[in-house]
Design goal:
The protein has 484 residues and is an alpha/beta fold. The protein has helices at 2-23, 115-118, 133-138, 173-179, 183-196, 218-222, 247-253, 278-293, 323-337, 361-376; strands spanning 36-38, 43-48, 54-59, 62-67, 73-78, 84-94, 96-113, 142-150, 165-171, 200-206, 263-267, 300-303, 341-344, 387-394, 397-403, 409-411, 420-423, 429-431, 433-437, 440-444, 453-456, 466-468, 477-478. It has three domains: 18-104, Sandwich (Immunoglobulin-like); 106-376, 3-Layer(aba) Sandwich (Rossmann fold); 388-478, no CATH class. It has ten helices and 23 strands.
């Protein structure tokens, strides 16, 4: 009897503690001083309070009210806001009052992926710093760019809030270096800030070495028939592996939803290199994020992984030196088939083929920003690499036509074109000569009198020199593996 009464007392105390926690006004980690709220879109604000508590939210002349539900959750939605460099306060009253200060209104973007998104401007254990890291950090004082970072956590189920994070702060040399903030995302945001002249909010959530599946929500897998059988396992008391489906989405993306943002950038793929269905997995990731955010088809721009090999010179991770080009085609298919997406090509940005983490993240950020400026903000800038369109045969030559040449084609270094191969009826590819003729490239090789196929940059180590007038490299292709 005494034991039963003790259990009852403990249960009552636990319930009282839970109710006490719910009685206190609580905001998710993504809301805080120094943040940027998205302009020109409805802006959800949410949190927790004691069940039934009336809630009032005030910002920029708007006042919204709600009442905490039986679970203590509440949510309001601010109307469209105008971009503003003037610091403002967000005031939330629900029994208690919380005042968040120094808030700007502008453009908000999320950056995610694996180690090439995670790579900071400065030092990272086991990696070289980015190009001109010291100078870039010294010049990185942008008080109207604000940064937020979700830190590394796994969860078998979706969390309502982040467990570990670095709160919003103004971008500075010290902030970037202390947080080890993403270089690619920073350079992307800096470019937007310079060109759009509005405050920029950058949310970083990435983890080196991770696959795409852990970042994908269950609803994303369910939306792609070939992936519909993928589910998060029941781990029980076992340790959760970083490779398990949805476990990073659950802990590092779900708690951010539905914070208003313009779009996302993504740099990932090295850990999925041997996949033959990465384009389907991209559809699941992008479609899943878009569905749970409820903003429609928000822009999603990503990076074609760069050429690399292992230090011993052997093909890395998978069977042959052609494995990575085959993966590039899958990435290109994702960009071609998924609405409001775009991909940048990086075959010209590698200074060490033995380094899987290219150091030139400034150009990566610049090219991603060009996609956003062109496709999202209607700023006329060259943003897309030329891509193979069609081939016709003229005698012993294959004549290639390209899309997105932006003023024509050229050799980046003024040297003869590199990394072209041609095959005849026997299907054996041999190195080929290639010449720019007007808006086309003519490809031929001694001994191949009747070309049947052409491939370009078809190796994990390919660093070709064909680009458009804007300097954007032509995307690798194989006429036997169409992107369409």
């Amino acid at each position: 009897m005494k034991f039963t009464r003790l259990l009852a007392l403990l249960a009552t105390a636990a319930l009282a503690g839970l109710n006490s926690a719910r009685a206190e006004l609580t905001l998710p980690a993504i809301f805080g001083d120094n943040m940027v709220l998205q302009q020109q879109m409805p802006v959800p604000v949410w949190g927790w309070a004691a069940p039934g508590t009336p809630v009032t939210v005030t910002f920029a002349g708007q006042t919204r009210t709600a009442r905490a539900d039986a679970a203590g959750q509440w949510r309001v939605q601010l109307g469209k806001l105008k971009a503003s460099f003037t610091p403002q306060n967000l005031v939330i009253t629900a029994g208690d009052t919380r005042t968040l200060t120094n808030i700007l209104v502008g453009e908000v973007w999320l950056g995610s992926g694996q180690s090439n998104m995670e790579k900071p401007v400065g030092l990272q254990h086991g990696q070289k710093p980015t190009i001109n890291a010291e100078q870039e950090l010294a010049a990185a004082n942008f008080p109207n760019i604000r940064i937020f970072q979700a830190d590394k956590v796994l969860s078998a189920t979706p969390l309502t809030d982040l467990k570990k994070f670095h709160a919003w702060q103004a971008c500075s040399s010290n902030a970037l270096d202390t947080v080890h903030f993403s270089a690619a995302l920073y350079f992307f945001g800096r470019e937007l800030h310079t060109n759009l002249n509005v405050p920029i909010g950058l949310i970083h959530s990435s983890w080196g070495g991770t696959r795409i599946e852990p970042w994908t929500p269950p609803v994303g897998f369910a939306s792609v028939p070939s992936l519909a059988d993928i589910h998060t396992p029941d781990f029980g008391t076992n340790k959760i592996p970083t490779t398990a489906p949805s476990v990073l989405y659950n802990a590092m993306i779900a708690p951010l939803v539905p914070f208003a943002l313009r779009g996302a950038i993504w740099y990932q793929g090295e850990s999925n290199l041997s996949d033959t269905n990465y384009d389907a997995k991209m559809a699941a990731l992008i479609g899943g994020w878009r569905k749970i955010w409820g903003e429609g088809n928000f822009p999603f721009y990503f990076v074609e992984i760069a050429p690399f090999k292992d230090p011993g010179g052997k093909p890395i991770r998978a069977g042959t030196a052609e494995t990575e080009p085959q993966f590039w085609v899958q990435q290109a298919r994702a960009a071609e088939h998924i609405k409001k997406t775009g991909m940048i090509v990086t075959t010209d940005l590698v200074d060490d083929l033995n380094d899987i983490h290219p150091r030139d993240k400034a150009t990566v950020g610049h090219r991603l920003a060009a996609l956003a400026l062109d496709k999202t903000y209607d700023v006329e800038v060259p943003s897309e690499s030329p891509s193979f369109e069609k081939m016709k045969i003229s005698g012993n030559k294959a004549v290639l036509k390209f899309e997105d040449t932006h003023g024509g084609l050229k050799s980046r270094d003024g040297q003869p074109l590199t990394w072209f191969e041609v095959a005849g009826a026997d299907g054996k590819f041999v190195p080929a000569d290639a010449q720019i003729v007007g808006k086309t490239v003519e490809v031929s090789a001694a001994g191949v009198d009747a070309p049947k196929a052409v491939r370009f940059a078809w190796s994990e180590t390919a660093q070709p020199n064909l680009c458009n007038a804007a300097g954007l490299p032509v995307a690798p292709f194989n006429t036997l593996m169409p992107v369409e």
